[in-house]
Design goal:
Elements (H helix, E strand, L loop, with lengths): L1 H7 L6 E3 L7 H5 L5 E3 L6 H8 L4 E5 L9 H12 L6 E4 L8 H11 L1
Amino acid sequence: MVSKVKKACPQIPLVLYVNGNGGLLEHMKGTGVDVIGLDWTVDMEDGRRRLGDGIGLQGNVDPAFLFSPLPALTDEIQREIMHDIPYSSFTCYTSVVDQYERTCELLQFYL
């Protein structure tokens, strides 16, 4: 499936979100996607070590922090950012509809 999508839309990066399947990271790299999205159970440094270079990483803030006071959430984000892992980005996979206000607060934090 990945090869068909890449052939039809080569300019669009493909992301595979592991969600609970951190034990399968090495196999997921073989799918041919451009980015692996890690859930909060996989440490970013461990993910980079296991996947090596040549594939992007997204993750991995625990979405439970969206229910925390804003200082706790921003502290967790800063902790993840401090890893400074090449070809990686901070993300938190959750329902934006349920967390609209918190998402707005996060955007203000980054702006």
